């Protein structure tokens, strides 16, 4: 019975954030994703590069909406995406005939590596998975996938976060760098 008792939780739901916090979170998420999207659709669309990946949507929620979370800090944002991208590409190269296995290895290994390097960023798991299940354009990037889109896109989102999250007096980002 103790096992099922643990599933009840130990705390109450956090309080609702202020309207101002919601507005600044929206502005940050809009500008961050727009900046990465702009680079993709205006600057690299006609190349072999890809700049915008689904995991950046989840990163936007963290770096603009949960700015005090350890998971949203610069080391986590950048390290989580880059390390996970490398692991995802490596997993695809090793297990490309068994995509289900490559996907599982990529996400699980990315999790452990992010833990070990103190760069835990949940969207990194999606970045690793995208390296495995992504389009041929993603696969064609090979290890460059860790540079662009993973690293460059995360860096663009970080730069936007540094500007937007520090405009209001009641917001400060980051909590730590290293």
What is the approximate shape?
A: globular
* First and last CA, distance: 42 Å
Q: Given the structure, what is the number of helices?
A: 8
Low-confidence stretches: none
Mean pLDDT: 95
Major sheet: size, sense and barrel closure?
none
Given the helix and strand composition, which structural class is it?
Answer: mainly alpha
Task: Give the fraction of residues assigned to helices.
Answer: 55-70%
Radius of gyration: 17 Å
In short:
The chain is mainly alpha-helical and about 180 residues long.
Report on this structure:
The protein has one domain. The chain contains eight helices and no strands.
Furnish the topology, listing elements before pairings.
Elements lengths: L1 H4 L13 H26 L10 H11 L8 H22 L3 H19 L5 H11 L2 H6 L5 H18 L14
Helix pairs in contact: 2-3, 2-8, 3-6, 3-8, 4-5, 4-6, 4-8, 5-6
Task: Jot down its keywords.
mainly alpha, globular, 178 residues
């Amino acid at each position: 019975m103790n096992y099922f008792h643990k599933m009840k939780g130990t705390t109450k739901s956090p309080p609702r954030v202020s309207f101002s916090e919601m507005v600044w979170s929206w502005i940050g998420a809009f500008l961050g994703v727009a900046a990465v999207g702009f680079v993709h659709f205006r600057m690299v669309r006609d190349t072999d590069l890809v700049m915008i990946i689904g995991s950046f949507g989840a990163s936007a929620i963290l770096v603009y909406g949960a700015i005090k979370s350890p998971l949203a800090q610069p080391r986590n944002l950048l390290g989580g995406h880059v390390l996970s991208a490398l692991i995802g590409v490596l997993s695809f190269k090793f297990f490309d005939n068994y995509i289900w296995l490559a996907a599982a290895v990529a996400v699980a290994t990315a999790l452990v590596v992010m833990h070990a390097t103190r760069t835990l960023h949940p969207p990194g798991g999606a970045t690793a998975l995208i390296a495995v299940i992504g389009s041929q354009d993603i696969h064609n990037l090979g290890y460059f996938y860790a540079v662009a889109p993973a690293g460059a896109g995360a860096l663009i989102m970080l730069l936007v976060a540094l500007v937007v999250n520090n405009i209001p007096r009641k917001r400060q980002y980051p909590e730590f760098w290293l």
